[in-house]
Amino acid sequence: MRDREDEEVTAFVRARYGSLLRTAFLLCGDRGKAEDLVQTTLAKTVVAWSRLQHSDGIDHYVQRILVNTFITSKRRRSWWELPLGRLAESQARDEYVGVEQRDLLRRALDGLPPRQRAAVVLRFYEDLSEQDTAHALGCSVGTVKSLSSRGLQTLRKRWTEADAVAEGVHCA
What we know:
Blueprint: H1 2-28, H2 31-47, H3 49-52, H4 58-75, H5 97-110, H6 114-125, H7 130-137, H8 141-166
Helix pairs in contact: 1-2, 1-4, 2-4, 4-7, 5-8, 6-7, 6-8, 7-8
């Protein structure tokens, strides 16, 4: 019986790891942190696996664990973690405009509060409905609409500011 569960968990991890990692990366903005987030999520999933395999909502459960773990990690800062600010990065220009746009979007996502970021990622990257996003975040549909709206508004503002800076015009 245990071997069958191990095979089911292994199959689940193989099927969903890439998708979970992409979502976690969009939430965290850092590949290492995203991998840690996925590992924590999968560890929590394995603990609950025996009761989950009898339900149809395994994917929703795992997505909710991922989002909740991310939001919780942003609330807690261990005493040994000292934020030092961002180092000035000098990046070589890439010949592909899409790379620059993805980087700009990732940086703008980094600046959103965790719940806004989670709402935007789930709604517009994962393409979840407002209802499914509300379920994943553990809130109402109205809250999802509010979080998504404020998040998109902030992203648009930062995108416009970045365009202005790129054109040599400084926005106040």
